[in-house]
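Inputs:
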Amino acid sequence: MTYDIDHTLRTLDPARHASTGLSDRAIEDLNRIMASPRQEPPDITSTPRRSSSWRRPTRLLPVAAAVAGLSVLGGSLRGGDDSAYATWTAQPAAVAVDDQVAYGQNCQAFWDGSPVGAAGLTPILAERRGDWSYTLMVADDGRTADCLLLDPSGAGGDPWSEGSGGLGPVTSETPASSAVKALAHNSTGLVGGAYVAVNGQVGKDVTSIVLNTPTAGDVETTVSNGYWAAWWPVSRSELDDQGGLTLTATMTDGSTQNLAFDDIQVVPADEQD
Amino acid sequence: MTTKPNGPPDDQGVAWFRTCYQQGYPDLLRFVERRAHPSQAEDVVAEVFLVAWRRLPDLPRDLDGARAWLFGIAHLILANARRGEERRQALAVRIAEVTTAHDPGADPALGASQLDLVTAWRRLRAVHQEALALTAWEGLTSRQAAAVLDISPTAFRLRLSRARCALRAHSAYNTSPAATALAQPKPEGIQS
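Outputs:
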């Protein structure tokens, strides 16, 4: 017995209902969509000096939204605050060890799809601020790469929706015990807002670092495994006002250092005189 | 850091978006229903159109092109909803259930071939299901289907040819000679 495979396949469409009109739900969604702000997606940024950033490419759109993330994509469809970073906190929340592993896996997956790739990058720092997970990865050659991923469930292992990342300069120098170095200062805009992310290295005697940011006040960093990092949201008009960042580092003996980010930023070897 | 200025959509753009929504919604809903749980379909469709609204200048100005463009967004959203390694794998596509209840008006030959094809379909790799569904059910051209999958048209044609061969290989019945002749893989030597 023979049969036309194409003809038979067409009779087996699993969604062959004949609806051609719009349901009440469809009409409601249309009205909400057209009432929402029609923001044009921002350019992928080149960060100031010696760093480069990358947003996960999506071929057709600037952000990839998970089904579960519908309610947090700008908040436009479901009401509420339109800021993508409305849940951000100046003090980071600790992340359980198991979640740190998941954050790291997500970050590696994020960079794995990039032109840079994730080869050799190992997660060494993870923190959480509101609905966002931040991970810093380091390679043996000193390269750093970070990820800021939307993770409203807080579990780290659930699908993330928006993401952005930045690269830091290659450095193989280990800081002195009381030294603080700055590696990357990345700024990126996403649908719904923009942010600045900074990271660096610390010597073994540095216990904490608080950033004195130009527009977000004092921001506590996460210090872990010889690295420090933090990020804060900014408005688009504030992106050009992020110079002059300073920080206060506290030592094991209780003493403090007040430092200017520009003074401690590492200059890559290929950019040195 | 550079940003593009926000601006109000022009009237023609708004009208075109509304037209695409009204004309494209049913097809897009079916596209999603074939690949995701039905309970999620309307949410995904809403998400696709929200993206399209925010990317209004990129929305193709012909219905056929807009339809395929929206399918591409939906495919990406569904793929990115999965985690880790699964994100880079093809999306499995469902197939209709075939009832074995007695229907006096039913064509028994069609029923038998349908049962055979459903069994064969479920043995296919997701990448082959994807290729077949985009042509058989979404009715896309090779170029459009390739854009949805982010591969070249040549690679898609090769993938489709392999999908047809795989479907036949899993089928218990012989296919018609015409279908067999049409599906012979072209000797292009290009990996998909």
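Remarks. Chain B touches chain A through 80 residues (CB under 8 Å). The beta strands of chain B are 174-175.
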